[in-house]
Every structure is written in C-alpha cells, then in structure tokens.
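Batch 3, record 17
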Amino acid sequence: MKALCWHGKKDIRYDTVPDPKIEDGRDAIIKMTSCAICGSDLHLFDGFMPGMKQGDILGHEFMGEVVEVGPENKKLKVGDRVVVPFTIICGECDQCKRGNYSVCERTNRNKDLADKAFGHTTAGLFGYTHLTGGYAGGQAEYVRVPYADVAPVKIPDGLTDEQVLFLGDIFPTGWQAAVQCDIHPTDTVAIWGAGPVGQFTIRSAVLLGARQVICIDNQPERLAMAKAGGATTINFDQESVLERLKELTAGKGPEKCIDAVGMEAHAMRSVDSMVDRAKQAAFLGTDRPHVLREMIYACRPAGTLSIPGVYGGFLDKIPFGALMNKGLTVRTGQTHVNRWTDDLQRRIEDGQIDPSFVITHTVKLENGPDMYETFRDKKDGCIKVVLKP
Amino acid sequence: MSHGPDASKKNSRTTTATKLAIGLGVFSLALGAAELLAPRRTSRNAGLKAGDLTMRAYGAREMAAGVGLLVAKNKTPWLWARVAGDVLDLATIGATRRDRQRAAMSLAAVAGVTLMDVMAARTLQAEAKREKAPLRDYSKRSGFPLPPQEMRGAALQDFSAPDDMRAPKQMRPHEAEDVSS
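Prediction for the assembled complex:
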C-alpha cells in the first residue's frame, strides 16, 4: 500500500510499504477514506519531537471503512464506517474507567520509554513517535487499529467524511480546551492561535456561553475565520496583545486563557521567542513557550489557563511567580477524545455545527508531502488539509 | 460547502520583523558612528588590535547598512548585507584579538546579532513571498447554522461540564453575579 512516511526533518515521502495485518484479536484494519494533517504533525515535520524513526507512517486524524476484524472484536464488522480517535485506549484500565483516556495505562507498547521521558506512560497514539507506542499512522491507504473494539466511532451514512473526520482529534480537542476552562456566562475567553484547534475552541466557547471570545493570531485569513465564528480578533503584528486584552476586559484581563499554539510559537514575533529559537538551534532548549508566558501575564487573577497546545520537553523562563501569586488554575493534557465523541457527533447530526467549515485544501494522499510545507508556512491561505486516497 | 479558492483581497501591515529590521538599522548607525569617530577606543573595547583604517572602513559599512535599513522599502538585501558584514566582523575578531576575555564577549555579541539579522531577513523574505499571493476570504465560514451571537450558549441546553473539569464551587469567582465589567 501507499503511505506518507517520515524520513527525517522536513523529509516526508509517499512510500510503498507493507499492508497492515491483524496482530491481535481486538484489532481491525481500516481502509482510509479521508485523513488530515494536524498541527501537531508539524512538530514531527520540523524535527522538534524526539522519538521518530525513519520510515514511520504519519497521521493521527483519519477515518474509513472496516475491511477486516480480529476474532475477539465484537464491536465492529466489515463495512462499518468509522472515525478513529488519535488516542488508542483499552477501556479497562484505571484511567480509562475514570474517563482519562489520553493517559490510558496499557496501550503504549513502549511504556519504558514514556516512563523515562515523562515519569509515567501515557496512551498510545497513532503516528506520533515511539514515545507513544510507535504505532503506524493514518496517512495511509490502510491502517491497523489496535484495541479497535473500544475507541472507533461508528458513523451513519447520512454524514459526509468532511463533517465527521475531525471528531477524531481537533473538534474534541477544541471542545475539551473550552470545557476544562469551566466557562461561565460572565467570562471572557482569550484564545491564542487561530489554527484548526483554535477555530474549534472558538466555536466551543461560543456554544458553551462565553460572554466574549477573543482570538489572537497574525494571519488575516485565520483571523477572518475566527471572526466568522464569533471571536473578537487581535492581530499581534499590528497591536499589543496585553494592552488590547486590557481594553477589551475593562483592565481586568480575561478570566479564561487558552493556548492553542504550543511549542512552536512564531520565532520572530517576540524577543523571548527569538531567544528560544536560538536555544533550539544550539540544542539548549526544546520549546518556544511565548504564548504560555503571555497568558500567565494576561490572565485575570484567579483565572484559568487551558493548554491544548502540544509541548514536548523542558520549558524555561516561565513566570511561575506570576502564576502562583495570581492563583491561576492550569488545565492541560492530550484530549480524552472518546469522552466527547458521542455528544459532538449528535451536535453535528442536529446541525448545531458543521466542522467542515475549517477545511481549506483537499488533495490526494500522494500530494501530502508538499502539503506539509504549505500548511506549515500557511501558504495559499492554508488552514486545514484533508487528504484522500 | 466549497473548499476551493474564495474571493481574494490584499492586506498591508507593519510586521515585527520590519520593526526589528529598523532596530538593527539604528544599531548599525550607532556602531558605525563609534567606529568612524573613535576607531581606536572601539577596537580596544572590543578586545582587538585592528588598525584605525580598518575600523573606519567597517564603520562606513555599518553606516551604509544602517541608512539602507532605515530608508529602503525592501529591507531584505540590506539585512543580508549586514549578515555578510557580521561574518567579516567574526573573522576580524578571530584574527586581531588582543584581550582574550573581551574578544570572546565581542564574538558572542556579534554571533547574537548575526542570528537576529538572519532571522529578520528570512522572515521578511517569507512575508514578501506571502504578500504576493492573494489572500483567501474565510469571513463567511462560521460553521454555525445561525449567526454566532444566536449560537451563544446553545450547548448549555443539554450539556454541563463534568465535575472533574469544574473549579470547586467555593473557588468559582464569577458565578454569583457579573463582576467582570
């Protein structure tokens, strides 16, 4: 079969690889019908996430048709149409029983690596380094789905791929980012980043009743889409983020701040990011946490920081004094996708939201390598890329 | 929904990279003035034993780059000119050092400025490339069936945050009344 494979920094190829096989009784094989490039895939593309090996198949946002099922899998049957969440979960461990699916204790088959890197293992992920299990990803014609009797979400025929594909990651991620802020009707929610996750976070905050939603970015197309979703926008190239946030909140700051950017904040847009970039180049640092620093300063005392943005390693110059003295609450983590999928699928079916609004580019899988660069550099107004086999 | 090209529009903005380029221009002028007017002292402070003529020539180069960065609309070539000058400066420090400690500090300072020059130049190049492409118009892509203001709170009819994602009641600062405005 054909797949997009990682061969090193900025080197992704459309390769011929062996077809996946059933390895465990609970497995299923999915014939991919749609997949997407996620912002967190760019961290692999840019070489900022450790633990990749040459030839690894990328991709963790995908859906398709079940073409083979393991003998112990009682949930799926051949012909089912499913969205596959990016987190691989067992459904049986202590964390899964609590709904903390992204920290499933059993699905990371490289638990020892994760224990060393993070202190404890987290869930296995598709196509996202050997620290999270080294599972083959979904940017491929066929995908082996382990524990496929738990996470895959069955999709009725009435919904298009474009409507439901993002149930596997960015829609629940934006939703959880807003939910874990515990939004109240009087709240101002400030969201850094108008990429795909930021866009879904905006819509989620609106649906959850935030009084005011503010989005911070510098890309005019993304800010226009943010505004369309109900956000007041701040272009950080044109105005001071901190001053504008004060203006919009009567000097008090937003009660809820959400980091939908993560480890690769623009290297040239602030002095601290420039220093971070220089340290990355010299192997003295791993992340550029400009947004995190700015959120801590901007947030209203006793407010909440929600961090869906991905961070990979060790962050420095974090103003922890401000964080502590302002009494801020920090909520973060990979998304517990299956905690939200039924509810969000129903909202799509009811017409409350159509997630396809975020798709700006649809191309063949074979054009995927070029689209990584287009997406990374925000060329051609690119916000979200969907790949078709 | 169509995912093809939407209507296009142009935009213009003063970016942080442009501001940085102007800052580097001012820095160039200041350093150039010091090298032109006080070549011996500048050389000594930098831990070098470069001749007055060399320092004045470098000063003239800095002044030219500074003026270019402040005046030119397209600042990128001037930034790359500064990078070339930085390389020359690094070589000069290596070849004419007199005071090891000061020379090391000069070396680190020039390396830092070189990095800023390269980053500013690369960013301005990327921005120029981007400015040429028409922007797409996503201003009608809300994803909602109704205007956003009418969707506000729509999910609350049948959703409440799970207990583990809510702040303890005693720590919810804004629940009783609107105190945010």
